Prior knowledge:
This protein is mainly α. The chain has one domain (2-298). It has helices at 2-27, 29-52, 62-99, 102-113, 120-139, 153-179, 186-207, 211-220, 222-249, 252-259, 262-272, 280-298. The protein is globular and about 50 Å long.
Amino acid sequence: MGSIAAILTSICWSWSSIFFSSAGYVVGSKVVNRTRLLFAVSFLVITHTIIAGTPIPLDVEGYRWLWLGLSAIFGLVLGDAMLFQAYVLIGPRLSMLVMASVPAISAIFAWIFLRETLGIYQIFGILLTSAGIMLVVLDRNTKQRSPIPGKNKNQIIGLLLSLGGAFGQAIGMIFAKKGLDGDFSALTGVLIRMLVAAATIWLITLMTKEVRSNFELLKQNPKSILSILGGAFVGPFLGVWLSLIAVQTTKVGITSTLIALTPIFHLPIAHFYLHETINLRAVLGTVIAMAGVAIIFLVP
């Protein structure tokens, strides 16, 4: 169940990237990031009220709020912020290439802090899947000339930021795992994460006096609201909910590997929906990644 939830997460995030990119071109990534969390919290509060009977889980143990809150800050706030800035400095291709290291980082952290161990075939499956993802990422945006790493200060900072984003996601998964121990509801867990992330980001927005400009941009571009709404539903709401189910029921290294398949599932969307040409390298990378997934699923 956990592995299937992780794959469904990557599919959700493939679609959310389409919605958020569409809105980001119009209102900017900061506005998208802030607004998506408001929509996600709204979806989650309604769903939690229907399923659990309460809008806010105030009766949850303090240690769960601590671990899930830290998971939100490292993964959803710091990790995403560093990744978005890396996109600006070194472009999406190199940023996504560095982010392909998340499964390996997550597996190492899970081994150190959670005592999770992986078999030799599982490790091979993770490496094979990551290699396939890297091939797909390298193929995409080949017409865009990315900066040469280390040539100037901004490029070095961009690489460090993308690596920081990878560490943020990995640490976020470890903390989420600790907050979800036992048979704790993944829905309640994702609501806590989103509440903490939204509160943190909007507090920063208030301190930087950008609240008014945020809503003015949305008012001037009402179509972007629909894009953010759609992205928030399949991403921070449904996708993150599924990801916590995966983290709770599957080893962190395997979960992060399957969630990292987003570029693979983005290919058919890019071809049929965005009418992009898919090259041989992308097809080869997909085959390699799927072979790695098969090993993870089928080999004990």
